[in-house]
Structure formats: C-alpha cells, structure tokens
Amino acid sequence: MNVYSTICPGCNFGCGLYIRENGKLEVDFRKSSPANAGKLCRFGMSLSRFYTPVKSTIDGKETSLEEAAKEAARRISAGKGSAAFLSFGNTTCEELLAFQKIAESYLCTGANFEALPKDAYQTLSVGIPYSEIEAAKHIVLFIDPYEQYPLIVRRLLSARKKGAKITSVWWKDLPIADENIRPADVSKLQLTKDSPVIADFHPLSDVEQVKNVLSLAKNAGAKITFLKPFVNSTGAYLLSKDAKQKSLAQLVEDINKGTVKTLFCLESDPAGLIPQETLGKLTNLIVQTGQAGAAKANVVIAHEPLYRKKGTLINNEGRATALGGAGTNGLETLGIVAGTKFEFDPLHESVKKMLGISAIDEFTIPKYERPSYGAVPASAKPIEAKNALVSVYNPFMWYGLADDNDFVELNLGVVRALKLLKGGNIRIKSNGSSVEKKFKVSPVQDNILLTGKRIGIEKGTLTPVEVSR
C-alpha cells in the first residue's frame, strides 16, 4: 500500500490531500494543507474516477512508453514547421520547462495573453492570498463560487462572519451574497480600493469581459484575483511569460487552415476544448498523459499520474508546493521526444530561480512583484444576452467527468411562459442543433439558461439559443 501527499488536480486552488493506493484509489484528508485545511469539494472526493489508467498506443495498438515516445518524435520531426505544442498546466513546473524547450516554435498554454495588456500579466497570473479575502470588508464576485471553485466559499463565509459585505455580479442570485447584481447592470456596482474582486481566467474566457473586469478594478484601485481551472495554471503562466505563445482560438484557426498538422498535448485532453471537427483535420494527434482522456489520439504516451510525480506546483496564491511522488517518467519521456536528456535537479533549480525563492515551502507565499497596470483599453460595458445558454465551467466540465447536474437552470417566469411541465424537458436549439434537457427552477436572470454540464451545442461561455417546450 502506497500513500502520496499530493494536490487535487481539479483547479488551481491548491487543495492538499492524500492519495492511497489500496487495491483501488482512496482519498484521505490532509489537515495540514494551508490552502484548504483538509476540506475537499465533490470533485476532490471523486478523484478515484479521475485517475483512470491509460496505456501507451500507436494507431490504436498497445506498445511500450519508450516506443510511443520514439514514434511521437518521428512524427513531430516529419511534420517540422507544422507542429504545435499544447499544455494547460496540468503537470509540474519542471515538466513545463522541459516542454517549453521542445515547443519554442509554437507553444499554447490556452490563455489568450496576446489580446490583453502586458502590464496586467502578473495580475492575471498570480492571485491575492486567500487570507486577504478573509480579511476584506467588501468582496465582489464575478463567479459562482459554489459551482466553479467551491473551496473559496469557506474563505467567503469566514469574511462574512467578520462583517464583510459580499456583492455578486452573476446570472442568478447567490445565497452567500448580500447584494445580487446582474451582469447587464454592472454600472450599479460600487467598488472601492477596499473591495477585492474575484473573477476567473481560462482558455474560453471572453477577452473583452476580462478587460472590463480589469478596468473596473483599476478605476476603483481595487485588488483583483483571477481563479483558474487547472492545477498548475499559475505555474504555467509564470514560467511561460517570456515565451511566444498562441491562444487556443489561434490554435483552432491554424489547425482549420492546415498550417498546424501535428498537435502534441502534454497532460491536456483537447477533446473538451477543441471542436471534434477541428481535431479531425490533424494528421497526428499526440497525447502524453497519466490518465485516460476522451480524445482519439494517433499516439498516446502513458506514464505515471500526477500524484506519483516528483515536482513543483504553484497555486492561485503563488504558493509553491512539492508533490509527494518520486516519478520522473514524464521528464524522461519528454527527453526521448526532444532527442536529449532532461535532468530534474537543474530544471528544479531553474523553477526556484524564476520564482525568486531558495526552497519550496507550501506554508510561505513568495513575495511576487505586482506592478500597477495601466489603463485597460476597454469600457466597463455590460454583458448583453437574450435567450442565451451560459456555461458555468467547473472541474467536472473541464475534465469530462460524469456529474449529477444533468439539467439547466432557469427562472419561474420562463417556465410559465413556455408552459413547461414539472418533471418534463425544455428544448434548446442553437447552431442548427437541438437538445432536450431536464430543468431546475432557480433565481436566474430572465432569458438565461445556466448549465454546469456540456450539452453539445455550446459555442464558448455564452451561446445564443431558442427555447421551447
């Protein structure tokens, strides 16, 4: 029986836990973890389902890790000039540094930094410490914390007990909020320099809305933190800040145009973020991973899962944590692909140097430089939506893991207007497709449907739809 001290891969919150291999995977609480003090959300408790074993394959035939890596190297070399490299930050900083050395020509971390002000980079990459959220007097939410980042709720409740006011700028009323403002009414929001703003930043974020939130915070002199969906997103962003990057949208466009024919994904399943018709245009899809995914790859390079790896992760606060495993197969495999050898220790020292620290200590948050960003070229215009499906991205959605929320949320007025029947379905049409879903009545904005599960017709976070009985 093996026990690993590790971090939940569900998001970048940095929740510590133990994984126990006891014939099957078991999750144990780790009370000493500074990010979550042992508490876990339902995704964290579902990790035995997340870590589905995977085997190395070449064109569907099982093979060894080494042969799969060598075949990947051959295909990347044969497609030189038309290969792209994708990683959302689901692996260690050391592997990400090695990956960058391979991917110098076309690196994609998913985030669209090209369209955002450079002086806001650090603000987007590293959030404020959770302790500052607990100590705040007024907190503004641009997320649904229950659905998207459940462990932040504990910090919000602690702040409320100390007298904090919580304002939600969201599509439905949130129980934790003292004040609920709809996104279209954001002009009613009263921010001050003592009002930390909590939003999120991910590959499918609307860049204009990110600019708008940055602009609101800048105008008020308020601190802002962007929560993120992948376990080492902060690490990926910090380590790649000087690298040339392409956005996810640019990658999709280049695959569709045929300028990218080979895609190498490191610990990142592209199935949930890149349209299937786009993936079908690739000559080679290569996936290096520690758990099974949905994408049908030409080459799968399978090695140890994240919790067995040796390496460093950085959470949303910028807190660096050492994983409890000793595995370096991921690094060795990247070496085979690159035709070189990647040593852990030099890469680890490079990670510490880039963070400006001498040791990895999960109980200390490094002092990151947080320069003030300039005026953001965006106006704080409201989100306008009529008859729209809003996708509330959460860990289950990002990783394609089955969940029990197979319904859409809408308000009672919509139910009555469409004469929907209790226990019945609502028909949702968009982009030439139609689906029928169960529904739940919630205090949601008029003409908005919320979903925490992929239903097959989405086009980003907000999809215009037609609804009927």
UniProtKB/TrEMBL annotation:
InterPro entries: Mopterin_OxRdtase_4Fe-4S_dom (IPR006963), Prok_molybdopt-oxidoreductase (IPR050123). Residues 1-52 form the 4Fe-4S Mo/W bis-MGD-type domain. It is an enzyme of class 1 (oxidoreductase). Keywords: 4Fe-4S, Iron, Iron-sulfur, Metal-binding, Oxidoreductase. Signal peptide: none annotated. Coiled coil: none annotated. Pfam families: Molybdop_Fe4S4. Transmembrane segments: none annotated. One of its GO terms (molecular function) is metal ion binding. PANTHER family: NADH-QUINONE OXIDOREDUCTASE SUBUNIT G, RESPIRATORY NITRATE REDUCTASE. This is Formate dehydrogenase like protein,alpha chain. It comes from Candidatus Methanoperedens nitratireducens. The lineage of its organism: Archaea, Methanobacteriati, Methanobacteriota, Stenosarchaea group, Methanomicrobia. The gene is fdhA.
